[in-house]
Amino acid sequence: MATHSQLSPTIRFLLPLLILQCITTTLAQAPAPAPAGPTNITKILEKAGQFTTLIRLFGMTQVGNQINTQLNNSNQGMTVFAPTDNAFSGLKAGTLNSLSDQQKVELLQFHVVPNFLSTSQFQTISNPLRTQAGDSASNKFPLNITTSGNQVNVTTGVVDATVANTIYTDGTLAVYQVDKVLLPMSLFGPQSPAPAPEPVKKKKSGSDDETPATDDGSASADASGAVSFGAHLHGLIVGSIEAIAFIGMFYL
Length: 252
Ligand SMILES: *[C@@H]1O[C@H](CO)[C@@H](O)[C@H](O)[C@H]1NC(C)=O
Ligand SMILES: *[C@@H]1O[C@H](CO)[C@@H](O)[C@H](O)[C@H]1NC(C)=O
Ligand SMILES: *[C@@H]1O[C@H](CO)[C@@H](O)[C@H](O)[C@H]1NC(C)=O
Ligand SMILES: *[C@@H]1O[C@H](CO)[C@@H](O)[C@H](O)[C@H]1NC(C)=O
What we know:
May be a cell surface adhesion protein. It contains nine helices and six strands. The protein is α+β, with helices and mostly antiparallel strands and 252 residues long.
């Protein structure tokens, strides 16, 4: 078999190359694997582009980490309304700087809903939505969704934003691009403390209906921030001690 013995060296040489090529092609064409480990909101926003301000604020306020942790630990899922860099540059100059650290946390948490919402759920949702910022009463942190056909708007009572795009959805986390920063009533509404820190001592008697109330509002916001941070630390410490005690039970 002359032909056979002539071909076989060629085949012997080519076959490994062919197999190697098959493997590399298959690897290259394989669908992107599910992201290893827990979902990372920062990574999602980085990939989408045009969210550098939001990423920075999520980092500064730790709200990004809260989202990641909560996603990993709850089965409700989450929804994030993500304002673009353009949305942030559309704010009046000094808007972010007028906020205390605690108010920045609230502003960011106001963009996060602690359950997964698909676009079709927007059609039937009951207003106001409760966000991570808490109390959705009408002068606190109400967030309303209005729809008309496929158009979805988010209304805070201060701004009306439009949902422009779904950036990410996996059935647990949904991230929607919005064209405006969602400014909450309690920080930017008519009676909010942030924009106009007016001196209180105009009249000594009567009329302590309005101004003191707003003062209390800002004071308690800061105080509760400190308290909740303390409580969080305490929780961590107690949690760690319990975990050690728990592990100890098995070894003693
Ligand atoms: C999330 O992604 C960002 C950017 O890619 C990275 O810096 C950060 O360490 C990640 N966080 C976690 C918890 O993996
Ligand atoms: C995610 O949850 C798992 C199981 O509850 C836990 O073991 C893991 O440490 C968590 N990871 C993060 C980054 O929180
Ligand atoms: C959404 O907002 C846009 C622009 O503000 C407005 O023209 C439109 O009527 C709103 N749609 C709904 C359903 O609220
Ligand atoms: C939000 O919806 C609630 C309930 O329908 C309504 O009472 C409230 O006025 C709405 N607020 C805004 C700002 O649209």
